[in-house]
Amino acid sequence: MYTASSVFLRSLANAGITHVFANWGSDHPALLEDLQRQKTEDGKTASKIITCPNEMVALTAAQGFAQVTGKPAAVIVHVDVGTQAMAGAIHNVDRGRVPVLIYAGASPFSALGELKGSRNEWIMSVQDIPDQAAIVRQYMRFTSQIESGKVAPQVIHRALQIATSHPKGPVYLWSRREIMEEEVELTAFEASTPLNRWPSVEPAALSARGSLLSSSASTIALALLEARSPLIITSHSGRNHSAVPLLAKLSDRLAIPIVASCPSAVAIPSSHPYFLGVTFLNGRTHSDHLGKADVVLVLDSDVPWIPAVQPPHRDARVFVIDSGDPLKTISSVGQWHIDAEMMCNADIVVALEGILAAVDAAQRTSGDTGLVAQRRSDLTTEHEEWIHTLDDHENAWPLDLDGRATVPNVLGVLRRSIEQRTPSCSLQNTLILNEGITNYPAIWEHMRTEVAGGQITSGGASLGWSLAAAVGAHMAGKNYDLIVSIVGDGSFMFGVPSSAFWIARRYETPFLTIVLNNGGWKAPKMSMLGCHPDGHGSRAASGVELSVGFGPNCPDYSQIAVAASAGWVWGKRVGGDGGNVKEEFERAIAEAVRVVLEERRCAVLDCVFESI
User: Fold this and answer.
1) Domains in the chain, number
2) Which residue of 37, 136, 346, 486 has the smallest Cβ count within 10 Å?
3) How far is CA 495 from CA 435, 469, 518, in A?
4) 356 and 459, same structural domain?
5) 75-84, 325-334, 387-396: least confident range
6) Is pLDDT at 93 greater than 80 in this prediction?
7) How far apart are CA 358 and CA 221, in angstroms?
């Protein structure tokens, strides 16, 4: 017997969904029944089913999978409550522009046994709400009800077509229990809508007005060529790995400095001589280059600067290019604006190719300028000084036994340990998941990532991403030497470690977790100081007094993971008072890396720093 659920699952597999992250409920009997039918008839399910004891963890694991593969995964949750329980992960896949297909069942609509699947449990009445999709609609690219198994393939293909077109993002489907129990004929089950008839929208190019020299690409290229002090700001261009060498080429060609503002992916190799670092705009100036830049090119950035802190010069020419949503209307940002001469909706790779072609055409007549040569020298020197500063911070260990290590100390040890112990003897085949929050910039800069896709963040603002995302990234099958989650202690708890590490054990997805333990939530404290630098809160004796601290009895984070995995995870706390702190961290990090590489187990290292 085949049901609408049979058609639904077959359609997912036919559409290329290889992994389904599932949290089951009373709305899913027909799905569970059909999965067992698949095992009975074929020995396995068409898509791999990942059991997830928490919905936020399920969606986050799907996000990590999609971020690494570029392909959507599916998530199955339970009616309205499971939809709500995905929580902040919904925000992250929206803001991170991550393609994910979410399906939730819904309470039965029949109550007298009229149809198979009618209400037969008390919970089904209290879980029936008027508009279930409204819970998530403002975060979704598309929502739809599946009203019959006969149309399930078309609904799924349309949803995935939208999810994988710019601006990419999540889609939400739902259906009543009776519909998913609907019996279908074999012909309906075997009917297949050709996936190639549902292609993603082709990448958009910069507009052309006649010849190349009159196009928007030419306008941008000529502005960069004529600029005395150009600047490129990017946040997410590296989500498309092909953009990384193109951006480096443009920067090389005209000696343009690059600053990454609130990045979610590697925009350019850390060693590039014109890359000047990362900012997360936390009450600080953006870059010395922003205020003096006469031309600013903004590439795939939600927040290139904070106008109240440091905007560009009022006479600067600003050009904005975004892959699919330059006005932030599809991703539904509220108030948003950039003073700009030109706003462009274009695929970042196609746009960079167009700008480079326009630069080539213009340089045939104008040639290189003395300004470009001078910038090459100045920027190379500035980059070298920045690297020396990073080195100095990493090597500035405390001199007394009571001193605490710093985050740069530990990140330097971690990077060198990876370089010494991984098969590639480098970070070339290591994936860093950065959820350091107030330490976002430090992780980006001190891990010194060189390859496209080598370091990622959630792309959103909801904490608790990195643990489950590491699980999903491992399932992507990219054969990394090592996957490393670097996470603050607050974000570690937001990440539902009891669920994340259970899944890691169940499906054997070993990764290293470095917990940056500063004893609480530093970000709210910094926000308070940004508004009230000399207020009452600035004189609070501790984070605990301010109600943002976790002390004096902080959780033993590594042992939470050990317990969740029934002892499979290796865990250790390091950084207490006394002893040679440098040697202590070097030994502990080396052992943690060894456990993951050789024993193929997760390792969690709780690194204790000075408490907030």
Assistant:
1) 3
2) 37
3) 10, 10, 17
4) no
5) 325-334
6) yes
7) 6
Count of C-beta atoms within a 10 Å radius of residue 602 = 32
Give the model confidence (pLDDT) of 171-222 as tens digits.
999 999 999 999 999 888 888 677 778 999 999 999 876 554 558 999 999 9
| Alpha carbon separation from 412 to 15, 384, 407, 516, 539 (Å, rounded) | 43, 17, 9, 14, 33
Alpha-helical (H) ranges within 86-191 are 88-95, 123-126, 152-163, 177-180, 186-190
Exposure pattern of 61-92 as b/e (b: 16+ CB <10 Å)?
Answer: bbbbbbbbbbebbbbbbbbbbbbebbbbbbbb
Q: Which residue range forms the structural domain that includes residue 511?
A: 396-519+554-608
Of 16, 8, 71, the C-alpha closest to 38 is 8
The model's confidence at residue 284, banded by pLDDT at 50, 70 and 90, is low
Q: DSSP assignment of 246-277, as one string?
A: HHHHHHHHHT--EEEES-SB--S-TT-TTEEE
Residue 512 within a domain? yes
> Which residue's structure tokens are 């250790």?
572
Confidence of residue 366 (pLDDT cuts 50, 70, 90): low
Residue 45 CA to residue 61 CA, distance in Å, equals: 19
Residue carrying structure tokens 């830049």: 293
pTM: 0.96
Q: Which two tokens stand for residue 65?
A: 């999978």
Q: Using CB atoms within 10 A of its CB, is residue 186 exposed (0-12), middle (13-18) or buried (19+)?
A: exposed
On whether residue 547 sits in a domain, the answer given is: no
Do 191 and 222 fall into the same domain? no
Q: Measured between alpha carbons, how far is 551 from 375 in angstroms, rounded to an integer?
A: 49
Residue from 611, 454, 412 nearest 517 by CA: 611
Domain shared by 515 and 575, yes or no: yes
Instruction: Return d(Cα 318, Cα 232) in angstroms, integer.
Output: 10
CA distance 226 to 214: 16
Q: In this predicted structure, what is the pLDDT of residue 285?
A: 63
> Where does 422-569 have alpha helices with state H?
440-447, 466-475, 489-494, 497-507, 522-531, 557-564
**Amino acid (one-letter) located at 93:** V
